[in-house]
Amino acid sequence: MPTYLVFLLGAVAGAIASTLAPQLQRNARPILKEAFKAGILLARGAQVNAVELMETFEDVYAEAKAETDGSIAVHEPTARAAARKRVPAAARKASARKAATAAAKRGAKGSRKRAVKSGTVEVA
Predict the structure, then answer these.
(1) Rounded to whole angstroms, how far apart are CA atoms 107 and 101?
(2) pLDDT of residue 107
(3) What whole-number distance in Å separates Cα of residue 9 and Cα of residue 123?
(4) Would 123 be classed as within a structural domain?
(5) With 60 as the cut, is the pLDDT of residue 114 above it?
(6) Which of 65, 102, 105, 113 could hold 124 in an S-S bridge, CB 3.0 to 4.6 Å?
(7) How many domains is the chain built from?
(8) Which domain covers residue 70, as residue numbers?
(9) Distance between CA atoms of 124 and 118, rounded to whole angstroms?
(10) Is residue 51 part of a domain?
(11) pLDDT digits (tens, 9 = 90+) for 6-34
């Protein structure tokens, strides 16, 4: 489309809008006001629904928590008893030996001297 034609259409549209502007303003203002009212009412309705939904979730959460509190109390002594169980002495000694051996290997890593005695390797 040629540029002068686009300019001409724009000028005509501007002239029509300027002559009809007072009428459009008088008629558009009440419509715009009604649209804003509808938006405000819609927002209030959404807020009310959100609050009701939140209260429902809180109620369900409180009910679920109340039901699980009783079952946790039943299992809690069992968990404490399991935590208090002692490891057998043999297992404690074996664990201590492993830890000491690992610490010795880490400490003497650069300057190890190995001696072979009766088929075993010792760290000197």
Answers:
(1) 10
(2) 67
(3) 99
(4) no
(5) no
(6) 113
(7) 1
(8) 3-107
(9) 15
(10) yes
(11) 888 889 888 888 888 787 778 888 888 99
